[in-house]
Amino acid sequence: MSSLIVVVTVFAALIMFFRVKIVNITGAHRYSDAEILSVAGISDGQNMFLMNKYRMADKLIRELTYLEDVQISRDLPDTLIIDLKECVIPLAVAQDAACWLVSPSGKIVDRLDISAADQYAQITGCPILSPSVGTQIALPSDYLPQQRSLVQLLTALDTAQMLDDVDGIRLDKHDCILVDYGGRFTVKFPLDANYRFKLHALEVYINGEKIQDNMTGTFDLTRDDRNYFQQNVR
Which domain covers residue 55, as residue numbers? Predict the structure, then answer.
């Protein structure tokens, strides 16, 4: 009986005392704090232990489609912490008289008028199947290796903070992915590769002494002999 009394007392204390007074939100760019709190259903004075933080995180990702990841934690006695990862640099797929924006994780985050496509780096060479905002991109079955590799490459580019230099991505080859990069290079990536390593090699070469500011050409990162760069000759 005494154990039951202790449990009831502790539970009552949790309900009575630990209530939301402060909410710290980090990583938001597109969405306001008020919008995030409204969608999550968080209000001042709400009990911190009765809320389902996993359900709230799922609702935020589902309804605020530019969000890639949401982590919610408690800092007792009265602070709720919401850490967001938001798609800042989407790529575009122009299809079906629409511009579909795709995040680095492969999630379709928005649908714009087709005229907006030129404002973004575009993914070309393969249609996406039944595009819908909030869903993952799906390519035809014979493009599944490209689909898997595309998401892995986009994630690596985003992590390396290199996505802003991407001018376009082409999926029309069945043995590689072609990336137009930095306004003057084409980069040939193998499928199913260690893209973190490949991007590091690319950065080293671009920033090295052999690559001059006026050079254009192709980096063939499918090669293993380190003779990656082929300069365009005018």
Answer: 2-86
